[in-house]
Amino acid sequence: MVKSNPLVKTLVTLRGNARACVWTEPLYSIPWQLYAPYIALYQLALGVTESQIGLIASVGMFVQVFAALASGVITDKLGRKRTTHLFDIVSWSIPCLIWAFSQNFTHFLIAAVINGLWRVAGNSWNCLLVEDTDKRQLVHVFSWIHIAGLLAAFVSPVAGVFIARYGLVPTVRGLYLLAFVMMTVKFTVLDLLAEETQRGKIRMQETAGVSPWTMLSEYGGVWQKIIHTPRTLVALGVMVVLNICLMINTNFWGILLTQRLLVPKQYISLFPLAKALVMLVFYFYIIPRLDPLQFRRPMLTGFTLFAASQLILIFTPVLGYSLLLVSIALEACSLALLQPYIDTLVVVSVDSVERARIVSILHVTMLLFSAPFGWLAGNAAELDHRLPFVINIVLIALGFVLMLKTSGQAGQRDASPAAR
Fold it and tell me: What are the C-alpha distances in Å from 276 to residues 35, 49, 269, 329, 335?
């Protein structure tokens, strides 16, 4: 029965770069998911204020803007494979070491600046993953990428045990060191298994004699392709909404639980486990039953569930574990729908010839809109720990409206010369 599941079939039959990217992803996602629930709590324990946490998030996003802007040029010049390996090491391995030994706000700020370069590797890795992959497999491929991260939830309670015994700061330092080792191994193995994509080889030849400044000056023409492709504009709007919401949840969810709901720190790791179990059930039993190229209904449902989860979270009383679990379950269902479908919507919405530079511009625009929200949410949290999640609800409503304006089928082309 397991082998007959379409999601499992996709995993088994993957070949080439898609196989290399998917099968190595747990080495990155597991350590990230282990330390992510404690990022803000770790910073607070080392004397960083809530407004400074928001500032760090905003500065990191501003760096990501410039990294995303350059990512298309770098990816085309160096190739998808080489760019991914180089910038993964720089933007993840090095910051993990800095985080492991951080003592104050300045250290976290430096790490955030270096980590912001991950947008370069994010673009090149995405091209490496999708360019030689069958379009109808993409929702399942992206589902497996997200499932890889959920595997960490089954060992995350161990982090809670270590926190109870050794304290928050020593445990999180250890998690960052573990992340350094596992991520570095992942980047090395992926580089050994992957090959340059066909589109990547073509772009390397086409750009061999072109200066980076000339390529950047051509972004105006690439932007024209974007604004004349309505589906791509919708994808951009939805990217902005989800990026801000996830940033707010990453930075302020743990603070709300410990500071307002008075949940003990050692219990925080249990909630990602509950979330992961719900998402895994959703991925294996719901996602395979959905059309991988029909976006509208799954994403509208996802936004509705996400809004409900945030609303329940806001009204959860102190130590209200039952409502908190309901909120987590609804959020899990919403993200299991939204994340793979948004990833796929972006892929099928862009001109494949200019994929690297279009994705670069999409990320730059997304980050420019997102960057102020770290600072805004940080200041809102100082007034009331629930206010960042009120911001989320407003943004989710905007995402819902955007999806109402798009056609549901990926196969339907936008009536413009730029659409492919």
Answer: 15, 30, 11, 9, 11
Q: Tell me how far CA of residue 215 lies from CA of 75, 222, 290, 326, in angstroms.
A: 12, 10, 40, 49
Q: What is the tens place of the pLDDT at every residue in 286-306?
A: 888 887 778 888 999 999 999
Cβ neighbours of 269 (radius 10 Å): 23
Q: What percent of the chain has pLDDT over 90?
A: 43
* Half-sphere CA count of 172, side-chain side, radius 13 A: 24
Which residue, among 253, 20, 28, has the nearest Cα to 152 in the 3D structure?
Answer: 28
For the segment 174-197, what is each residue's pLDDT rounded down to a tens digit?
999 999 999 999 999 999 999 999
Closest of 310, 289, 323 to residue 400, by C-alpha: 310
Distance, in Å, from the CA atom of 215 to the CA atom of 254, rounded to the nearest integer, reads 42
Phi-psi map region of 416: left, alpha, beta (phi>0 left; psi -120 to 50 alpha) = beta
What domains does the chain contain, in order, with CATH numbers? Answer: 6-404 (1.20.1250.20)
Write the DSSP assignment of 100-132 as a string of letters: HT--SHHHHHHHHHHHTTHHHHHHHHHHHHHTT
Which burial class, exposed, middle or buried, applies to 9 when counting CB atoms under 10 A from its CB (0-12, 13-18, 19+)? middle
Distance CA 225, CA 39 (A): 38
Task: State the amino acid at position 44 in one-letter form.
Answer: L
Q: Name the phi and psi angles at 386, rounded to 5.
A: -85, -20
Cβ neighbours, 10 Å, residue 287? 23
